[in-house]
Design a protein that fits this description.
The structure is a homodimer of 120-residue chains. The first copy, chain A, is built from two helices and seven strands; from the N terminus they run E-H-E-E-E-E-H-E-E. The first copy, chain A, is of the alpha+beta class and 120 residues long. In chain A, strand 6 and strand 7 form a beta hairpin.
């Protein structure tokens, strides 16, 4: 089938903390939000640089049929954000309380890993 | 900091099965792949409709320092793929062995959920 990959939805433990992380530190913009009565869930949709692809933060109330105690698990390995100045970026992350937890280099590429408020 | 959200990386239990699911059923294209000696990891990068955003399949050998027994967890709620004909799409998924596990409607939108080979 023909498909267009448009969104990744992550579960968040707490919406305000995650919104701050993705909008204030990573500079994403909120492009939508809402609540679904049937799931007792709340979602916030974010994008960066108008690529069209969105990150959706999903939060379920404790009385939601979709609520389960948050376990990080392995399904989500990482989310990648390109930055112009990596050293400056992880210094800024560190000052915001999100220190570098891992680093890789390969050829001319460098990756620095920080954990979001959900342990991602 | 200015960022561009470019990739979501998921952990897969088995590369060939996941590659088949994302390329044959969801029609994504492989745009890169490689192995990292230092992590004993293998990755395959996929895209759909040249949006620039990629899905990265990450596989770690059992002797990799990053290997852990796969637990699905809650961090990754869902990946969203837009299709032209939803009924046809989930019939095709069902025939490929991936039946619908949930469904939602809201306004003029409809979502059908299927599980990938990793339980995502």
């Amino acid at each position: 089938m023909k498909t267009k990959f448009v969104t990744v939805g992550i579960r968040v433990k707490d919406l305000p903390t995650s919104i701050r992380f993705y909008t204030q530190l990573l500079n994403m913009k909120i492009v939508g939000r809402g609540k679904l009565k049937e799931t007792r869930g709340e979602w916030v949709e974010l994008t960066s640089e108008n690529t069209g692809f969105t990150l959706e933060l999903n939060y379920y109330e404790k009385n939601s049929p979709y609520y389960v105690e948050y376990q990080l698990g392995e399904a989500l390995d990482h989310l990648t954000f390109k930055v112009d100045d990596l050293d400056k970026a992880f210094e800024e992350a560190k000052l915001s309380g999100y220190p570098m937890i891992d680093e890789h280099k390969s050829g001319t590429s460098r990756w620095v890993y920080v954990e979001d408020p959900n342990g991602i």
